[in-house]
Design a protein that fits this description.
single chain; 246 residues; 7-stranded parallel β-sheet; globular; oxidoreductase activity, acting on CH-OH group of donors; SDR_fam
Length: 246
């Protein structure tokens, strides 16, 4: 398929997990892809090699840094001359309840999960043309009826993301730019599984009617939809991709 032929996508956190799967999926649809990565240069370069260096670029940077977002945009424009799709995928998932959240914990996750997407959008919008797509990342846990207290800090950031989507869709609609979010359920990535013992992971799997975690490739399909011409009349929405969990 070449539904994204002639389009250029930026994906933060694009070297592993959902970001990597999304980069490969959009490239399969014909998009040129620029991934931002923080530290795993080898994985980032593997993504570029798989797609091909004529159609992909890896840029090292911190998704929570405004200066690094500006550099990401500059490097993308230098190589490909345009930006059509922006996916703010990078994030962190610290397990912190109210009593165990330090001020530094709060500031760190706000920088990456909220400030980063906010200012990436601010800096990139002047370069976007009508028909551009902005996709942010929330979580199904914002809508699940059963939730554990250690998700408090993480979900605080994702609640902010969902409100950003709602309002940005109004602000950018007159420019014919759509803004949506994908809200994965528990997904089999290092970000999600790290530090969770096997009994906990099994319990989480059992929350799904399918009895398993989602895969990064399944989440990437939703990213591809929001990136495509088929989603042109969809904006301000949060799509839960969770196998029926919530």
């Amino acid at each position: 398929m070449t539904t994204l032929a002639g389009k250029v996508a930026i994906i933060t956190g694009g070297s592993r997990g959902i970001g990597k799967a999304t980069a490969l999926r959009l490239a399969r649809d014909g998009a040129k892809v620029v991934i931002q990565y923080l530290s795993d240069e080898q994985s980032a370069q593997e993504v570029v090699t798989t797609i091909g260096s004529q159609n992909a670029l890896a840029v090292k940077g911190n998704a929570g840094s405004v200066a690094d977002s500006e550099e990401l945009i500059r490097r993308t424009l230098d190589k490909f001359g345009q930006i059509d799709i922006v996916i703010a995928n990078a994030g962190s998932l610290p397990m912190r309840d109210l009593a165990n959240t330090s001020e530094q914990d709060f500031n760190d996750i706000m920088d990456l999960n909220v400030k980063g997407p906010y200012f990436l959008v601010q800096k990139v919008v002047p370069h976007l043309r009508p028909g551009a797509r902005i996709i942010l990342i929330s979580t199904t846990l914002c809508h699940a009826s059963t939730i554990s207290p250690p998700y408090l800090l993480y979900l605080t950031t994702k609640g902010a993301i969902e409100q950003m989507v709602r309002v940005l869709a109004k602000e950018l609609g007159p420019k014919e730019i759509t803004v949506n979010a994908v809200a994965p359920g528990p997904t089999d990535t290092a970000l999600f599984t790290q530090g969770k013992p096997e009994p906990m992971l099994n319990a989480i799997k059992n929350l799904s009617p399918r009895g398993r975690l989602g895969t990064p490739e399944e989440i990437a399909e939703a990213m591809a939809f929001f990136s495509s011409p088929a989603s042109g009349w969809v904006s301000g929405q949060v799509l839960r991709v969770n196998g029926g969990m919530a």
